[in-house]
């Protein structure tokens, strides 16, 4: 997660290398055990056990992710009265990636990668946690549309998709030349977009999902 003050909140992988290897082995094993099954035959005791082990590892990863989200949102809610976040229509995006009647799977591959990053990071859950934690302390969350926040330079307002390369943003306006973390730039834009709506409140913090913005850097 990138904040408008230039800091980030990082987390390690939810599963350690050994756990990831074990998960991959178990997934292959379950495929073999499924393939060995006769049509109509119920899942064997062995296959059920493999499923259990897979589910336990996935639950471990999820528990670690939720723990991290709780820690991070508690810290943000304790630090800022108002937190501005980008408003992502997560469910709409996930739906469109599977292909709809009017857009039968165009850009599906690209969107599927993005959606994996979004759902993997569970940005929606982070926002929900932030909403109740800030409101418990008398603050609140402001959602602003994400449109243009990644491509626009926060310093001079110049907008050019070419300025962004991976996790770097380098303003192409020669009179400006600001360069830094692409998600920090976007977070500042998000904060500025909400600035007028929440002026006078002070304690303005902005956060965005870094993984959504830079899925290939994960
Ligand atoms: Zn600039």
**Ligands in the structure?**
zinc ion
Mean pLDDT: 79
User: Could you give the count of β-strands?
Assistant: 7
How many strands, which pairing sense, and closed or not: the largest β-sheet?
4 strands, mixed
The portion of residues forming beta strands comes to 5-15%
Describe the protein in words.
With 218 residues, the chain is α/β, with parallel strands linked by helices. Helix content is 50%, strand content 12%. The chain has one domain. It contains seven helices and seven strands; from the N terminus they run E-H-H-E-H-H-H-E-E-E-E-H-E-H. The strands form two sheets. Strands 1-7-2-3 form a four-stranded mixed β-sheet, with helices on both faces. Strand 5 and strand 6 form a beta hairpin. The site of zinc ion has 8 residues, from loops.
What brief labels describe this structure?
single chain, 218 residues, alpha/beta, 4-stranded mixed beta sheet, 3-stranded antiparallel beta sheet, 7 helices, 7 strands, 50% helix, elongated, disordered C terminus, binds zinc ion
In short:
This protein is α/β, with parallel strands linked by helices and 218 residues long. The chain has helices spanning 17-35, 45-79, 90-97, 108-121, 123-136, 182-195, 210-213, and strands spanning 2-3, 82-87, 140-145, 164-165, 168-170, 179-181, 204-208. Helices cover 50% and strands 12% of the residues.
């Amino acid at each position: 997660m990138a904040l408008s003050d230039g800091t980030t909140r990082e987390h390690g992988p939810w599963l350690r290398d050994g756990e990831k290897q074990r998960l991959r082995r178990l997934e292959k094993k379950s495929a073999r055990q499924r393939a060995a099954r006769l049509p109509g035959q119920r899942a064997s005791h062995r296959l059920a056990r493999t499923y259990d082990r897979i589910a336990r590892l996935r639950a471990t990863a999820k528990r670690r992710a939720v723990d991290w989200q709780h820690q991070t949102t508690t810290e943000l809610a304790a630090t800022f009265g108002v937190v501005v976040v980008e408003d992502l229509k997560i469910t709409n995006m996930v739906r469109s990636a599977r292909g709809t009647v009017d857009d039968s799977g165009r850009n599906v591959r690209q969107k599927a990668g993005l959606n994996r990053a979004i759902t993997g990071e569970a940005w929606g859950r982070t926002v929900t946690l932030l909403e109740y934690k800030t409101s418990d302390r008398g603050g609140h969350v402001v959602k602003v549309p994400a449109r243009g926040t990644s491509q626009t330079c926060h310093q001079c307002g110049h907008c050019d998709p070419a300025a962004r390369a991976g996790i770097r943003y380098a303003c192409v306006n020669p009179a400006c030349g600001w360069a830094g973390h692409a998600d920090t730039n976007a977070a500042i834009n998000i904060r500025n977009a909400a600035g007028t709506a929440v002026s006078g409140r002070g304690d303005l913090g902005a956060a965005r999902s870094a993984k959504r913005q830079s899925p290939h850097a994960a």
